[in-house]
Amino acid sequence: MPFAIPDNAVTRAFQNIGNEWALLTAGDAEHFNTMTIGWGSVGFIWQRPVVTVLVRPPRYTHEFMDKFERFSVSFYDHKYRKALTILGGKSGRDTDKIALSGLTPEFVDGVPTFKEANLTVITRKIYRGQLESAGFLVPSVDAEFYPEKDYHTVYFAELLKTVENK
């Protein structure tokens, strides 16, 4: 039987990813990276509950997304906006941005996330694809979001577990 998405988790995820941002984190206990995301979706595809996230190839987190099978998407209260701004504005390649953010790393089933999250979704990748200009049916979307043609990689991942911290 497929994993069931708790109603409150889905509602919170949709509300937060557009309004409060979220963190996408991939790696393991030895080495991981995180980035702030403001785009993504939760739905049901291929008879599975899935999360869809997008990462531009130049981002350091992209390397971790390609290397590791599982990742987390975590959601935060508004009081963590400064921390998420730091994590979205600095690169983990050359800065210990996690220390700068003040967030506390923790691992759920070996997948990195942060103790301060009010909701963490643990996922397993099931599809990876690359956006391209030819796929846009509304040219203005391509022109507005990809003027430099730096198209996102799209990851579909099966939801394995949700962890709520209250």
Structure report:
By secondary structure, the chain is of the alpha+beta class. It has a single domain (7-164), classed as Pnp Oxidase, Chain A. Helix content is 25%, strand content 38%. Strand 6 (105-108) and strand 7 form a beta hairpin. It starts with 6 loop residues before the first helix and ends with a strand. The model has no long low-confidence stretch (mean pLDDT 90).
Concise account of the structure shown:
The protein is an alpha+beta fold and about 170 residues long.
Topology (SSEs and partners):
Layout: H1 7-19, E1 22-27, E2 32-37, E3 41-45, E4 48-55, H2 60-67, E5 70-75, H3 81-89, H4 97-101, E6 105-108, E7 111-114, E8 119-130, H5 139-145, E9 153-164
Antiparallel strand pairs: 1-2, 1-5, 3-4, 4-9, 5-8, 6-7, 8-9
Tell the overall outline.
Answer: globular
Low-confidence stretches: none
Portion in beta strands: 35-45%
Strand order of the largest sheet: 2-1-5-8-9-4-3
Give a count of the beta strands, DSSP E runs of length 2 or more.
Answer: 9
Task: Name the structural class.
Answer: alpha+beta
Number of helices: 5
The CATH C-level class name: Mainly Beta
Q: Helical content, roughly?
A: 25-40%
Can you give the mean pLDDT?
A: 90
Q: Describe the main β-sheet briefly.
A: 7 strands, antiparallel
Q: CA-to-CA gap between the ends?
A: 28 Å
> Rg, please?
15 Å
CATH topology: Pnp Oxidase, Chain A
Q: What count of domains describes the coordinates?
A: 1
What is the CATH superfamily label? Answer: Electron Transport, Fmn-binding Protein, Chain A
Helix/strand order: HEEEEHEHHEEEHE
CATH architecture: Roll
